[in-house]
TrEMBL record:
Domain of life: Bacteria
UniProt record similarity statement: Belongs to the short-chain dehydrogenases/reductases (SDR) family.
Keyword Oxidoreductase included in the entry's annotation: yes
Protein's name according to its UniProt entry: 3-hydroxy-2-methylbutyryl-CoA dehydrogenase
Protein keywords: Oxidoreductase
Amino acid sequence: MELSADISAIVTGGASGLGAATAMALAEKGVKVAIFDLQKEKGEEMAAKIGGIFCEVNVTSDESVDAGFAKARAAHGQERILVNCAGTGNAIKTASRSKEDGSIKHFPLDAFDKIIQINLVGTFRCIAKSAAGMMTLEPLSCGDRGAMVNTASVAAEDGQIGQAAYSASKGGVVGMTLPIARDLMREGIRINTILPGIFDTPLLAGAPQPVRDALAAMVPHPPRLGVPNEYAKLALCMIETGYFNGEDVRLDGAIRMAPR
């Protein structure tokens, strides 16, 4: 798919981090970008910066997502690109014993479900609704009606202590990529997933420097945190390269996460 001003895109989680970097990279190619996010102030600031629009969207809500798509499409037309970066995480052991009194507790199931709803179901919700819209378009000369990129995590393959919910949600994103590619293959809609390693995003911005240095030292090469623009470059490669479909690609400096 050739990126140009004739193409519109939606980036979930586009107000900051990996999503913001991708929104900027798409805009630099002339693409009309709509940002879906709950961070209204940051989202509006980013949209103004790239000449796009902001849609306050909660990916766990059908009504909110529908409203976001309606607003984006009214402004930019039917999107041909969807990049899913909205997500969150937590760190809770499956079951644990208190160091103080030896009492035992298990992972609260509502906390587990929250991560699944945002990271996995929210991602699929946006995919399904976007795919239905893309199917109304005529194929481009390359044969594509649209292209999608999802964000999983290396935790999908080597989750650490306390990451049962997060790893399950991201493993689900990886697991559904190929079936979705097969579901949409006759419609000319491609889908791929990136599994980022340890990236320098707002999640780590407040971490003490020794913690950041220790995380960087875990990466074989280059021994540093990932830069959001590196994610954006891979996302654009997946979108622009027509033979890129149904793939899950780690972007992690060859790291394999230890238990903790």
